[in-house]
């Protein structure tokens, strides 16, 4: 149940980011839910595979930054999967990753 609530919350954050940041476009809330689900699945699979060698290379000292970097990559990959979701640059994807991480921390604190 917690995963579903967090997924819906992340979809809401993605939709709000599309309203605030002009270089992000999300068609509707249904698309935002699909994008949030794909980002979660990509982070759990490919993201974990990418994070481990990068964390090992930095001796796990930059773990948080690497997580943000990999999440930004997953956002850009999700951009390729959905026609109703567009992120124009990697910098915007990185900013979205930071905001999603902060919103997720706030959500975990509240719930």
UniProtKB/TrEMBL annotation:
Q: Which Pfam families match?
A: Phage_holin_4_2
Keyword annotations for this protein, in alphabetical order, are: Membrane, Transmembrane, Transmembrane helix
Q: Which domain of life is it from?
A: Bacteria
* Coiled-coil ranges (or none): none
User: Any stretches that span the bilayer, and where are they?
Assistant: 7-26, 32-50, 57-78, 90-110
Its protein name is Phage holin family protein
Q: What is the lineage of its organism?
A: Bacteria, Pseudomonadati, Bacteroidota, Chitinophagia, Chitinophagales
